[in-house]
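Annex B. Sample input.
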Amino acid sequence: MPGGTRDPRRTRRAPSRSSAESGEDPRFAPVIEAFARDRRVTSGRMMASLGLKVDGKIFAMLVRGSLVVKLPRERVTELVSSGRGHQFDPRGDGRLMKEWVVLEGTEPPWLEVARDAYRFVAGPR
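Annex B, continued. Sample output.
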């Protein structure tokens, strides 16, 4: 930008330091670190939460201490049916997002699910 002013709308690359150091949930630290060197991934605040984007599209976020990821509907249904997650209701009004799942525990492992979400959102290369 002219005069060296930074555009405040731009998100930054995923940080190399852990999210635990930045006061975030330590379970999200390995997720951030796994994508820190990927040039397609940016991190920042989204929907009032710390999240990751690939090519400008959100694929994983930390929302009130839970991992929220975008996955194919079938995978979301599988995680919900198994009791390992529930559908994301961002407004709290019962309108569930069909391709988003909230994982509160550590099973399945957050990093594994975040990688699945990355592949789903990034699409074929």
